[in-house]
Automatic annotation (TrEMBL):
Sorted UniProt keywords: Signal
Protein name (database record): Secapin-2
Keyword Signal part of the UniProt annotation: yes
Signal sequence annotation: 1-21
Naturally occurring in which organism (per UniProt): Camponotus floridanus (Florida carpenter ant)
Domain of life, source organism: Eukaryota
Amino acid sequence: MKLLLAVAFVIALFFLSLSSAYNSNKSQKEKIFLPFKDKIEQGSIINTPPVCPRGQVKVGSGCRTLF
């Protein structure tokens, strides 16, 4: 009975070590770079206002002071 319990314990440890090794077998590129959508949050990109303040003109994607 003790032998059966010891064998079951060894098998459980073996599968546990396999599962932890499987999670750490990512390529070096996957470890460094995150997917784009996981890295960027909504609102993290700076947007220019649709209407520029008084005394400024919209040029391209930004507001510039009028001289």
